[in-house]
Design brief:
The structure holds 2 protein chains of 2 kinds. Chain A is built from 15 helices and 9 strands. By secondary structure, chain A is of the alpha/beta class. The N and C termini of chain A lie far apart (103 Å). In chain B, 67% of the residues lie in helices and 3% in strands. The chains are: A alpha/beta, B mainly alpha. The complex binds protoporphyrin IX containing FE (2 copies) and iron/sulfur cluster (2 copies).
Chain lengths: 360, 238
């Protein structure tokens, strides 16, 4: 018999009171009104739990690290037990053939009904040799498990965009999940790592409502990636006032001025850091005095310095920024104009001397 | 030698015209409003990317960055609305009002004249030609450096604007929703919008220089044409 989420939680020793608290917290973090709390509770009491298979490709495990540190301990426990983690080669007890057997078992038993969560991405060069799972390239495992899944969650910037291992020149050809699996709905949860509450929020939403959250054009859940860091940053009044930290130890930096001139990517980064924050809402990078590096945006690793506001252009093999290119060209053209004007002036005087009174 | 269009005009006006009405009032008005808007956009845009030194005092007493951005966005709206108005006038206005938008790319004589103008600027031709409208080289540079660049700046600019205005705003729906994914991410849109600034700066440098130089050296009026609308020719030779 298949257990419901609620039964699993109770079996884990979670009281009904804590369970209801979890439901209201989840509703709040998903931006749903109080009327949704009983709906979430009801869904969890009656729905058979959906297994989640969690695969690891080329990655650093920061997503897992973030996930198990979810600020609300119950959310972590509940979600961890909910998703059963029938397979997660990093944190499960089983190993070797035993582990791979579990994978096959879940895949047959819940055919078309399990969720595949991917952390990291498959490298395609060297026949995938840069990432081997159970003796085979990760790409094989990914394709195999993706075949019968209901939906895929791409955890973090690795699975979503490629991230650091895909940085130029990308020797292993690390490739984000959506470029190798094209026939399944994919939910991207980018970030390096993504915020724990965002991760549990996305999973809970999918399990309780039995559908994937509303996504934007790039495949990210709108509820967490609909706004930029800059839109909700508590230093924003300093930005609007024109008060900036200009060096890491200057007066402005001590006063908590805006970090824009220090290369903060908050204005171009869609993530929930400035609202949800990190480590249970304790802080987030900007609050600790460092600009956002745009870790949840595509290609953030290849834009030159994290501390530049005007970032590099990598096109045409040159590495330079817009101002350097622009001022350089303007300088050359300016010099050309001056030279041209000088020659024109000479020509004009000569002509008027040679043919006096011609035109005037 | 005159271009095909100029021949027609010349014929229509009689052989020895010394003045032709070229730029109608809406075109002239648009030119100067547009020039002003672009100047404001270029300066404020530069200072958005590289802000002025920090303001002293409380945040609540200052709004410098806010004003600079406000000026940029207002000038952006002026640019857009002016541009739409200019397109309307290209449809209802005279022939010269269309020159900015349509390049006779398949006309061999036109290309020859582009080359001629290039040679004139390289001091390889002793005497300039007469043109009622734009000379072909000017037309080409206006299309490439000004028209395309302006459309690009309007599209990327309003895509960035829609980010602040947020999902649901017209700018977000019309531009942000597809421009940001097209470029990959917002920072790239910023970068290329910034490159656009320098393309426009190049156009303005060349344009103003050429306008003033032609005013002095060519056989027709230039700057005053954009003020009064009348093209005056300095001699009677064809
Ligand atoms: C003080 C500076 C400027 C002067 C003196 C000036 C002068 C002129 C003149 C004389 C013409 C007519 C050219 C001809 O007769 O063939 C013209 C056309 C034009 N100018 Fe300017 N200009 C100035 C600034 C600008 C700026 C800043 C822009 C925009 C970036 C601009 C964009 C244009 C365009 C697009 C045309 C073509 C008009 C049309 O066909 O509708 N100008 N300008
Ligand atoms: C000739 C036209 C324009 C020029 C030269 C120009 C220039 C610039 C420059 C240099 C930047 C800074 C980019 C960076 O972050 O590196 C900028 C930002 C921006 N521009 Fe423009 N721009 C133009 C037209 C427009 C238009 C039509 C709009 C639409 C309203 C617009 C809206 C914006 C916005 C929203 C930003 C970002 C502001 C921010 O991040 O705070 N721009 N512009
Ligand atoms: S610190 Fe960064 S996110 Fe915050 S207001 Fe400044 S630029 Fe925006
Ligand atoms: S503040 Fe920016 S760089 Fe830091 S975690 Fe959030 S999105 Fe990533």
């Amino acid at each position: 018999m298949v257990e419901t989420f609620y039964e699993v939680m109770r079996r884990q020793g979670i009281t009904r009171r804590s369970f209801l608290k979890f439901c209201s917290l989840t509703a709040a973090s998903l931006g749903l009104g109080p009327s949704f709390v009983p709906k979430i509770a009801h869904a969890m009491e009656t729905k058979p739990r959906t297994p989640v298979l969690w695969l690891h490709g080329l990655e650093c495990t920061c997503c897992s690290e973030s996930f198990i540190r979810s600020g609300h301990p119950l959310a972590k426990d509940a979600v961890l037990s909910m998703i059963s983690l029938d397979y997660d080669d990093t944190i499960m007890t089983a190993a070797g053939h035993q582990a791979e057997a579990i994978l096959e078992e879940v895949m047959t038993k819940y055919k078309g009904n399990y969720i595949l969560a991917v952390e990291g991405n498959p490298p395609l060069n060297q026949e995938g040799m840069s990432c081997i799972i159970g003796g085979k390239p990760f790409l094989d495992q990914l394709k195999h498990v993706a075949k019968d899944c209901k939906a895929i969650i791409s955890w973090g910037s690795c699975a979503s965009w490629g991230c650091v291992q895909a940085a130029k020149p990308n020797p292993t050809q690390a490739t984000p999940v959506h470029k190798v699996i094209t026939d399944k709905p994919i939910i991207k949860v980018p970030g390096c790592p993504p915020i724990a509450e965002v991760m549990t929020g996305v999973i809970t939403y999918m399990l309780t409502f039995d559908r994937i959250p509303e996504l934007d054009r790039q495949g990210r859940p709108k509820m967490f990636y609909g706004q930029r860091i800059h839109d909700k940053c508590y230093r924003r009044p300093h930005f609007d006032a024109g008060q900036f930290a200009e060096a890491w130890d200057d007066e402005g930096s001590r006063k908590g001025y805006c970090l824009y001139k220090m290369g903060c990517k908050g204005p171009t980064t869609y993530n929930a850091c400035s609202t949800v924050r990190w480590n249970g809402g304790v802080s987030f990078p900007i609050q600790s005095g460092h600009g956002c590096i745009g870790c949840s945006e595509d290609g953030f690793w290849d834009k030159g310095g994290f501390y530049d506001r005007v970032t590099d252009i990598n096109a045409f093999g040159v590495e330079s920024n817009a101002d350097k290119i622009g001022m350089g060209t303007a300088g050359v053209v300016g010099a050309a104009v001056v030279a041209h004007a000088a020659v024109s002036a000479i020509k004009q005087t000569r002509q008027s001397r040679n043919k006096p009174g011609q035109d005037e | 030698m005159l271009s095909a269009q100029d021949m027609q005009e010349a014929a229509a006006h009689g052989r020895h015209v010394r003045a032709v009405y070229v730029y109608e009032a809406p075109v002239r008005l648009w030119h100067w409003v547009n020039a002003l808007a672009i100047t404001v956009l270029a300066f404020t845009g530069y200072f958005i990317a590289s802000p002025l030194p920090s303001q002293p005092g409380e945040a609540s007493e200052n709004f410098l960055m806010g004003y600079i951005r406000f000026a940029h966005f207002s000038a952006g709206y002026v640019l857009l609305i002016g541009f739409l108005g200019r397109i309307y006038w290209a449809v209802v206005g005279n022939n010269h009002a269309r020159q900015l938008f349509i390049l006779p790319l398949f006309n061999r004589t036109w290309w020859k004249e582009v080359l001629f103008e290039l040679r004139w600027y390289l001091f390889l031709e002793p005497d300039p030609k007469k043109y009622v409208g734009h000379n072909p080289l000017a037309q080409l540079s206006m299309f490439v450096l000004f028209l395309s660049a302006s459309v690009f700046m309007i599209v990327t600019g309003f895509a960035l604007y829609g980010e602040g205005a947020q999902a649901g705003s017209w700018a977000h729906t019309l531009f942000t929703s597809w421009v940001i994914p097209l470029f990959g991410q917002s920072q790239d849109v910023h970068t290329w919008h910034h490159v656009g600034l320098w393309v426009i700066v190049l156009f303005v440098m060349l344009h103003i220089y050429a306008a003033i130089r032609e005013d002095i050296m060519s056989r027709q009026s230039m700057v005053s044409t954009m003020l009064s609308g009348w093209r005056l020719f300095k001699d009677d030779k064809p």
